[in-house]
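ok so i was messing around last nite and threw this chain in just to see what happens. nothing serious, just curious
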Amino acid sequence: MGGEGHSIGWIGTGRMGSAMVERLLAAGHGVHVYNRTPQKLGPLVDAGASAVASIAELAERDLVFLTVGGSDDLLAVLDHDGGLLHQARAPRVVVDLSTVSVEASARARALAAERGTALLAAPVSGNPGVVRAGRLTMAVSGPRSAFDEVERYLRAIGRGVTYVGEGEVARTVKLCHNLFLGGVIQSLIEVTVLAERAGVRRKDFLAFLNDSVLGSDFTRYKTPQLVELDFAPTFTTRLLRKDFDLGLASARELEVPMPVLGLVHQIVQAGVGQGIGELDFAALLELQARASGLSLEREEDPGGGGTGTKT
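result:
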């Protein structure tokens, strides 16, 4: 952004956070970064970021991005003695890119408002590979004026930036997205197992599906994992369960029946209970295969790898 830009801070540089910081650095924006494990900051510092030793040191930044693990983490980062909103100064805008509950987001917004800080909820859809490929998407809600002020930075991070309204509605948009994600993967797994049980190789069935009108970026992204049985996590089954917990709680509050996704929730829960919580959610394939009396074997994927998808 050059000299006329905002001073930028970033809290949380795990796999996703680091990839997004790299995008800002590549676009020429200076970024001050904090992580609970300082050793993880080395590659970002080498790329041009400036490391800080505490969250408090970021309070004087104009704009601070957050990528944290969940609702409790969000409130802890903002609202404790060393928190971002407990310093002499507070940022003008905070952008939370995490997936948290609507209630936690509303609490964070109220805390920010007390300090004159605008909070934008901007949960993202993608994984580190998607980020680095420039294909990240996000839904954003909060004050329109704050969104207009920082939109250029959001678009430096991802290609798809959609302002969806005031308040916490972006949280609901993201939860709806991930509920749909769970429904799609379970449907894809079920028909894939049916085809294999009938004698069709997974790679052949999925090649057909991907070339049909039902093929999508998502089915093509997940094909290498389903074919090769490589469940190294891009988005874990446990994290999918967390989003189902949050999404179905919102549905109950709004009196919206979710009969299909309620059943998928129980399947995801079974996956966590059977030990695949830390594997990619594509590992739900193994549950479906066992339930169908099918022993899975790894196949070679002739199409090569994909960037995968987080959410």
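not much to say yet. The first strand starts at residue 8 and ends at 11.
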